[in-house]
Request: fold
Amino acid sequence: MSIERTLVLVKPDGVARNLSGAILARIEAKGYTLVELKKTDATRAMLEEHYAEHVGKPFYEPLVEFMLSGPVVAAIFEGQRVIEGFRALAGTTDPTTAAPGTIRGDLGRDWGLKVQQNLVHGSDSVESAEREIAIWFA
Ligand code: DAT
Ligand code: MG
Reply:
């Protein structure tokens, strides 16, 4: 099994709630290796590329606005099956029903907004990871 890399974002809600360290600690505690880390402000152009698959969906514009609402923490983590492993650690998209024990399940909730604020992003495939790492760590 080859070593993979994944892009992790602590979204603006996670940074604003001072949870960046707690979230990164869970990923490190699982055993994945931190390769790159920075706090940064997304641009609309970056987000249009990053979320291209969601263009036209009802939550797309609220999602872009949310991701522009404050700084994010971007990280590259590395390890065997880290893409799958991080998504398991993050939990499912809807934080209300994400399993307890996951980042979204333990730290997230529904705030009644047009987009779910669920603390983290993780790449969903090797192809997505390569594409997203190029956007955030150009
Ligand atoms: P994930 O982040 O779990 O990969 P996704 O790529 O399908 O989920 O969607 C990107 C983000 O958009 C997601 O983290 C939260 C938001 N989102 C997705 N589906 C939504 C929905 N039906 N209603 C509100 N927000 C949604
Ligand atoms: Mg996704």
Observations:
- Helices lie at 12-16, 20-30, 44-50, 60-67, 82-90, 103-107, 126-136.
- The first strand starts at residue 3 and ends at 10.
